[in-house]
Every structure is written in C-alpha cells, then in structure tokens.
Design goal:
Blueprint (H helix, E strand, L loop, with lengths): L2 H18 L9 H12 L2 H8 L49 E10 L5 E2 L4 E5 L21 E5 L5 E7 L10 E7 L2 H5 L4 E8 L2 H8 L5 H6 L22 E5 L3 E9 L1
Parallel strand pairs: 1-9
Antiparallel strand pairs: 1-2, 1-5, 3-4, 3-6, 6-7, 8-9
C-alpha cells in the first residue's frame, strides 16, 4: 500500500469512527460534522499536531546497522521486540545499556490526508550505546539486542520509547534511527516500510550529556562532526529532523519529533 493509499484508508477509518460515535447521525449530516469537530477538539495533542503538520519527513538510509534483516540479523521477527523500554536486551540476554535516561516521543502524521494521526502505524527505533556501538553488529555485542524496539502508534499517532542517550561516533552527528510501518503486523514481519529517517539530537543536550561520567569516548568524538557537515543531516541542516528536547543529566532527557509521512 502506498503512503497516499494509506492516508486515504486511515482517513476513511477515522471519519467512519467519528460518525459511528455520533448519536442518530450519519457521516454526512451537520450534526455528525459538529460531533466530529468536538471529538477532534477534545485532544489538545491531536489538534496541535494537525495544525503544525509541516514538511514531509526526509527519507534517509537505515544505516549500516539496522537489524531489520536487510543486511544480516533481523530483530523484528524476534519475540520480545515489541516494547516501550528498550534499554535492556531480551531473549537469551538481559544485559542493560548504561547511560543518561532518554524518553523519545514520535508523533506520526499522514501528509496525504490532512495530517490526521497515523493511529495503528508502527515504529521500529534503534540507536548506538554511549560508546557509539550497535547491538547485534559490534564484535562485543553480537549477543545483545538492546536499544532496539517496536511500538504501535496510539490514537494521537504517538509512540514513546524509554532508552538511554546515544553516544557520538566519528563521522556522524548524534542520532536515533527509525522506520515507520503501516501496522504492527507489517513491522514484526519485516514487511513494507513506509518511511525511513533519523532523529537529530540537539547540540546543547549533547554537550551536557557528554560531559558526564561514562560518555568520555563520545566527548572526544562529538566535536569532530557538526550538524551541517553530517552526511545525513547536512543537506538541510537537520531542520526537519532536529528533536525538541528538555531535561538534564540528573533527571534525564525528553526528545520529541513530529514525523509527517
């Protein structure tokens, strides 16, 4: 299914759901339209997301370490990959990645259908550890699958991951990878991908985190690459992929990004 077809499908489903919730009204009546507007207005997050739809998320490479079966190991078909907290491995290992806590919230919006939330879509997110290494690929982390997981979008099109702040490695600005799928079943079967992109983390947060204990290697690597010189974000300075961030090293950080597909 194409992105535009998906938008039409989700739009029709949303309209039908709103109409069904309207007492005694059909989808085309003024009463139904009023009820639909009231229903949408009931969610400030939803209303704000639609109003701020913005440009479509740039498509990027999944990178050399996706773990989605495209170049080797496939974590998407493993039991346990669907989870909010991705700090620990699952399956044969229960090791936990150490680092400053980070909560990542992505809001998925359908560009082809008036920026309605992509409720029911799924996101696979993954990133490196605080030393810049990727589970399943690094020679020391072949038996680990932490910092990888899948979530399904809620009614507001949002997915939330609990993780640790990723490190910086040579040649790349600090980032988080993600793939968007039409549904959870598509994601866990490594099916058709609707969008592939990356989240850029802010310079201020990176400087604060990399000055803390445990991120010494990242502190050395971080100054070597700028957002503009990065081979992924450099074409537009990461303006569409730069997260909104808040928090502190002591309390942990929160990163948010609107993903229009």
């Amino acid at each position: 299914m194409s992105r535009r077809s998906l938008g039409m499908f989700l739009g029709a489903g949303t309209a039908a759901a709103l109409a069904a919730c309207t007492p005694g009204g059909s989808g085309g009546s003024s009463t139904s339209a009023s009820a639909a507007a009231t229903s949408a207005a009931a969610s400030p997050t939803l209303t704000r997301a639609i109003a701020e739809c913005g440009a479509e998320m740039p498509q990027e490479t999944a990178g050399p370490f996706p773990g989605d079966g495209s170049n080797g190991p496939n974590v998407l078909e493993a039991s346990g990959v669907v989870r909010r907290d991705i700090t620990s491995s699952f399956g044969t290992s229960t090791s936990t990645a150490q680092g400053v806590p980070l909560t990542v919230t992505l809001t998925l919006l359908d560009n082809a259908n008036g920026c309605i939330p992509l409720a029911g879509a799924a996101v696979y997110a993954w990133h490196c550890d605080r030393d810049g290494r990727y589970s399943m690929y690094d020679s020391a982390l072949h038996s680990e699958n932490y910092l990888r997981g899948v979530q399904v979008a809620d009614a507001n099109g949002q997915v939330i991951f609990t993780t640790i702040y990723p490190g910086a490695y040579n040649g790349r600005w600090p980032h988080i990878h993600f793939e968007v799928f039409e549904s959870m079943s598509n994601a866990t079967a490594a099916g058709q991908v609707l969008a592939v992109s990356q989240i850029a983390l802010t310079e201020a947060a990176c400087r604060q985190v990399y000055a803390s204990a445990g991120y010494e290697l990242s502190a050395r690597n971080f100054p070597r690459t700028t957002l503009k010189s990065d081979n992924v974000f450099g074409d537009d300075g990461g303006i569409y992929q730069l997260a909104t961030m808040s928090g502190s090293v002591a309390a942990g950080y929160a990163a948010g990004l609107k993903v229009t597909v």
